[in-house]
# Entry
Amino acid sequence: MWATAVGVARVRALETERENPLFRDPLAQAFAAAGGLWPSSPPLPDDEAARRRRQAVSFSIVIRTKFLDDLLQQASASGVRQVVLLGAGMDSRAFRMDWPEDTRLFEVDTAAPLDFKASVLRQERAVARCERITVAVDLREDWPDALAAAGHDPAVPTAWIAEGLLIYLPEDAVELLLARISAQSAAGSRMGLTLGSRGVIERFGGDAVPGSAASMWVSETPDDPVGWLAGHGWEAASHTLRERAAAYGRPISTPPLREEWPGGLISAVRR
# Structure
């Protein structure tokens, strides 16, 4: 699945090349090139419907990246100095964002993507802008213990990011992940989640190419994400992709296919 993270890097590289990008990710092209996805992609269906679906997925990656960048900046401004990226993949926020001097950023993922990433970072001579700590562990295992062993302190607030992750987990695994996050979160912690908006599996998964990202999607946004997170002790806000895209000056011109609430972009504060 980490190859999917390289595909996300390709999308971020393309956004970085735009005249007025929503963010800049200078390392994204290096990750994509090293993963064999730059400048060409593996063979994919080339019909119009498949092309539109790929464009939609790429667009959602760009918008969610900006959304979570903003959330982390707000968390830093509020005094949060611990950041945990769950399923970090090719995330380069440790290198491309400005962090307060005493920030510690933990990247949690399995060894394969972290090793691949490390080789590219060495090649690029990349220097993190904060203290960056990698934690090689499968999120299906006891990752809180591994995170604690790496130096995470649950007694002080943490900013948690689970980007493009929960859609790949069955409902019980999502609940377990959230329970574990909550148990490690002091009051004032922040959390940013991306969830598959309602109907996304129906629209994208039905004729997905075997082995593609969409073919592995299994979970969608709960009917009431704000209430769901409240039950875990979080005060949350739910945003639609359409709403955030308009706010960022990238309005979606096509009408919604169906009611788009609830949204798949979640920000939350631990109370």
